[in-house]
Amino acid sequence: MYSSKIQHILEPNYKTYPLLAEVFKKIADRNTILFLGAGASVGDSKYLSKDLIDYYEEKKGISWNISDLTEFVDTLINDPSCSREEFDNLVDVCLRNYRKTKAHEVLARLNWREIITTNYDLLIENSFEEIKGTPAQNLRLKQIRERKDYGFRPDNDELLYIKLNGCLSDKKKYKLVASTDDFEKAKPFYRVVLNSLKALSDNIQFLSIGYSFSDLLAKQILEKFDAYNYRDKRWIFAVDPFVNTAKLPYYTNKKYAL
Fold first, then answer.
1. For the chain, domain boundaries
2. Is 73 helix (H, G, I), strand (E, B) or coil?
3. Spatial CB neighbours of 25, under 8 Å, sequence gap ≥ 6
4. How far apart are CA 156 and CA 176, in angstroms?
5. What are the residues whose beta carbons fall under 8 Å from the beta carbon of 59, sequence distance 6 or more?
6. Can you tell me the distance from the alpha carbon of 28 to that of 24, in angstroms, rounded to the nearest whole number?
7. What is the DSSP string of 79-94?
């Protein structure tokens, strides 16, 4: 998978793809940093950026023909008939419809080194809370939701859960990042988190779940991360079952192993 040709693996066969065993061993050894995108929250309900745009437009009776969430929110902010608070409240209502799945329960039990997410929802927090104090609990979750909290030094059994783009637990304190201005204000937090990943051991791997390359906001965020050169020559193992195989050479160039 580190060759010039990336393969999209749909069936985890260790004999055909021996590198998979290494990937899972690094998870078990707590040598994996997990990146969670919007697709990781999808279960019976789905609210990716385009879905949120469609839902808001339907409620307001508008049709702006904008598919990029950041552009949409920038436009909304400058329209007197719309309200950013109203949009954020709609996002809150939508994402609270999400329900934990078996996948979230598994994620809460695994031995991650660190989890970094751009998601607003509380699925991971709820999953960890559900197994708290039970034999299924492996690590204690420590939430990091703003720059001033990032200097925290965790205990051996604590897992840093870094929410880069705000949190539904308190939208006023941890504002949802969506507009151009939001991203500009979030830059110092992004920088301190991502710069800390530059000096990692070569034994530590990156794995992403839920960053669909077809979702414009997710693509922008990944490109923004790479602009900081936080992973240098390190690959990201990307979990995405709906990859366009024609774009595999592109993913190879970007160092995304699928």
1. 19-43+100-257, 49-95
2. helix
3. none
4. 30
5. 90
6. 6
7. -TT--HHHHHHHHHHH
Beta bridge partners of 115: 34, 161
- 214-236 pLDDT, tens digit each: 655 566 666 766 766 666 667 78
8 Å CB contact between 124 and 167: no
Q: What is the dihedral of CA 166, 216, 190, 165, to 10 degrees?
A: 0
Instruction: Give CA separation, 89 vs 86, 192, 252, in Å.
Output: 5, 29, 39
What's the burial of 219, exposed, middle or buried (CB within 10 Å: 0-12/13-18/19+)?
middle
Tell me the pTM.
0.88
Residue 203 and residue 11: Cα distance in Å, rounded?
Answer: 25
The distance from CA 180 to its chain's CA centroid, rounded to whole angstroms, is 19
Burial (CB count within 10 angstroms: exposed 0-12, middle 13-18, buried 19+), residue 216: middle
Quote the DSSP letter at residue 4: S
Question: How far apart, in whole angstroms, are the C-alpha atoms of residue 53 and residue 149?
Answer: 32
Q: Looking at the domain 19-43+100-257, which fold is it?
A: Rossmann fold (3.40.50)
| pLDDT of the residue at 256 | 62
Rg (CA), the chain: 19
> Mind listing the pLDDT tens digit for each residue in 11-45?
777 777 788 888 999 999 999 999 998 888 888 77
Is the dihedral angle over the CA atoms 5, 6, 10, 11 positive or is it negative?
A: positive
In whole angstroms, give the CA distance from residue 91 to residue 232.
34
Q: Which pair of structure tokens corresponds to residue 94?
A: 């939508």
Helix (H, G, I), strand (E, B) or coil at 185: helix
